Amino acid sequence: MLRLLAALVAAAALASPAAPSAATGRLTFPRDHFGHPQSSIEWWYFTALAKDASGTPYSVFFTLFASKGGFVPVSQVVNLATGAVVGHTEEVGLGKVGPSALDVKAGHARLRYTRPSNTWSFAVDTPAFAVSLVQRATKPYALHGGGTGVIRQSVAGPSRYYSATRMTATGTLRAGGEQLALTGESWFDHQWGDYLDDPRAFDWDWFSCRFGDGTELMLYQFLDPARPASRASTSRRALARSTPPATAGRSTGR
Amino acid sequence: MPSLSLSESLSAIVPDQLVRNTIIPTFWEGASTATGSRTGTCFVELSYP
């Protein structure tokens, strides 16, 4: 994760010093869907399982990292029938996400939130590969940290964090001269805080599950190989049913 | 997770789902099937040494 830090710090060097960000306070939407440029790092993170018209399954991943004037959008699509990587992109851009809207173009990537329809859209369009999904949450947003929207990012301090644990997803995939329509489901995470400078905040095992009975589970643990004796694991579940999601957490040391 | 009466086994759908980056670190972003107390699909994200 040190390269991630280096890349984002380099981008941040182009920006003015950031003011401390608030670590407390209730999340409000749509305000908190947008940017928190006072935080040292922020990301919008999407994972989807989708099929084309013939039933071929794909995993679709897109994220936008933002830090003090810099962006790193990353995408990858894998054909889950063959195992082939259909496409992968990773770029650097400059700019900030402000507090009143989300519509970012960075390199060949674009991410936007449309307020009236509560839809999240991302698109990557390169000569060799293109993917786009339009996604809409089918459940209320899950606020992690027992409904507070705040978790501890390892030992590095608080992180604001919520998810859309189940979203409809429709879009397109272009590769090898072929254009395919995609439909499926996705998961969205939005997280931000002031933990950019602590590498222990970026070393984790993370799971996001959608079960057939309509529930979801998020489980994670941070790893700290430099301090095995105090290595902490934290698990949290965000089980969302058809009613507003309940969140609960537990922390254990090991 | 005993508190949820949940016991799951995950299996990667395809064996290689590394996101091989050059600007940021490479990491695993793996679509997986879940079987056990409940069945479904998971994404497993692992930071990569």
Description:
The complex is a heterodimer of chains A (254) and B (49). Chain A has 254 residues and is mainly beta. Chain A is built from 1 helix and 17 strands. In chain A, strands 1, 2, 3, 4, 5, 6, 7, 8, 9, 10, 11, 12 and 13 form a 13-stranded antiparallel β-sheet that branches. Chain A starts with a helix and ends with a strand. Chain B is an all-beta fold and 49 residues long. The N and C termini of chain B lie far apart (27 Å). Chain A binds chain B through residues 1-4, 7, 47, 49, 57, 59, 61, 65, 72, 74, 76, 78-80, 82-83, 85, 88, 90-92, 187, 202-213, 215, 217, 219, 223, 235, 237, 239, 250, and chain B through 1, 3-4, 6, 8, 10, 13-17, 19-25, 29-31, 34, 38-47.
Question: Residue share in helices of chain A?
Answer: under 10%
Class from secondary-structure proportions of chain B: mainly beta
Oligomer: heterodimer
In angstroms, what separates the terminal alpha carbons of chain A? 23 Å
Return Rg of chain A in Å: 18 Å
The largest sheet of chain B, given as strand count, sense and whether it forms a barrel, is: 4 strands, antiparallel
Count helical runs of chain A. Answer: 1
Order of helices and strands of chain B: EEEE
Assign the structural class of chain A, choosing from mainly alpha, mainly beta, alpha/beta, alpha+beta, or little secondary structure: mainly beta
Mean pLDDT of chain B: 93
Instruction: Please write the string of helix (H) and strand (E) elements of chain A.
Output: HEEEEEEEEEEEEEEEEE
Mean pLDDT of chain A: 82
Proportion of residues in β-strands of chain B: over 45%
Number of strands of chain A: 17
Percent strand of chain A equals over 45%
Instruction: Note poorly predicted spans of chain B.
Output: none
Count of alpha and pi helical runs of chain B = 0
Main sheet attributes: strand count, strand direction, barrel closure of chain A: 13 strands, antiparallel
